[in-house]
Amino acid sequence: MDINSAIQQLLGTAGQVAGNIPLPQIPKLDFQMPSGSDISAKWNEFLTQASKDPGIVTYYNNLLAQAQGDTNLAIGFLEKDYQTGVRQTQANLQGTLEQLGVTSTQEQQGLQNTLNQRQIGLTQGPNNTTQYAGGGQAGTELGNLNESQKLRQEAQQRSAGQQIESMGLARQKGISSAGSQAQQYGLNLQHQKEQDIYQKAYGNYGIWQNQQNADYTNAVNQQNQAISTGSSQVSGDPKNMSQAQRQNLWDTSGKTGIAPVGYGGG
């Protein structure tokens, strides 16, 4: 036999041996990795669940309602103080004007007596009529007294008006401040609520991720166990065996002749 014939014979023998050896088939990994869209959808699901969590919603609603109640109470106090201050100022003005009225009467009577003592209280008028302080020095002094009394009355009214206006500005400033504080508190509560929602969602998302990792690890372990126990050999499944593999099983089992179609061992 020449060298080429020997080589071809060896190749043929190797091919026949290789065809008689059962080929291993790696079992399918029983796990499907979540896609990017799956992960995004799962995160949104946990985020929605956390935003509707009764514990979070009720807690922050109660805080907000309490803050609103405190704000309304503070505004009520401001309004009450303003109304009380206005009533007191008006009452004081009324008392002052009444006192000025009494004082004015006394001053008018005092001036009249003085003018009479000076014999200038009566003034000769048209058609030979006489009138009190109708002109001259008496009229000037009476006019000065009337102007002085008028100015004092106007000063008291102006002072009371300024006090009421000042109280109104203080009231408005207090209400604006209370509203701003309530608004800022509400924003802070909203920020804290969002943080709690994200924290809750992250916690649930982490649990889900850990479960995914555990499922993957378990699937890999089952695959490795299947391979190590030989359950991956195609020799047990006649549909996946070649006729040469069937014949090899037939021969090694001590049988003679040609292995029947569909034989899988046994």
Query: How many separate helices?
Result: 5
**What is the helix/strand order?**
HHHEEHH
Per DSSP E runs of 2 or more residues, the count of β-strands stands at 2
In round numbers, the mean pLDDT is: 82
User: What global shape is seen?
Assistant: rod-shaped
Strand order of the largest sheet: 1-2
**Radius of gyration, Cα only, in angstroms?**
55 Å
Low-confidence stretches: 231-236
Query: Which secondary-structure class do the elements indicate?
Result: mainly alpha
Ends: how far apart?
40 Å
Percentage beta strand: under 5%
The major pleated sheet works out as: 2 strands, antiparallel
Q: Which range best describes the helical content: under 10%, 10-25%, 25-40%, 40-55%, 55-70% or over 70%?
A: over 70%
Number of domains: 2
Structure report:
The two termini are 40 Å apart. This protein has a two-stranded antiparallel sheet. It is built from 5 helices and 2 strands, in the order H-H-H-E-E-H-H. The chain has helices spanning 3-20, 36-51, 54-117, 136-228, 243-252; strands at 122-124, 130-132. The model is unreliable at 231-236 (pLDDT under 50).
Looking at this protein, list some descriptive labels.
266 residues, two-stranded antiparallel sheet
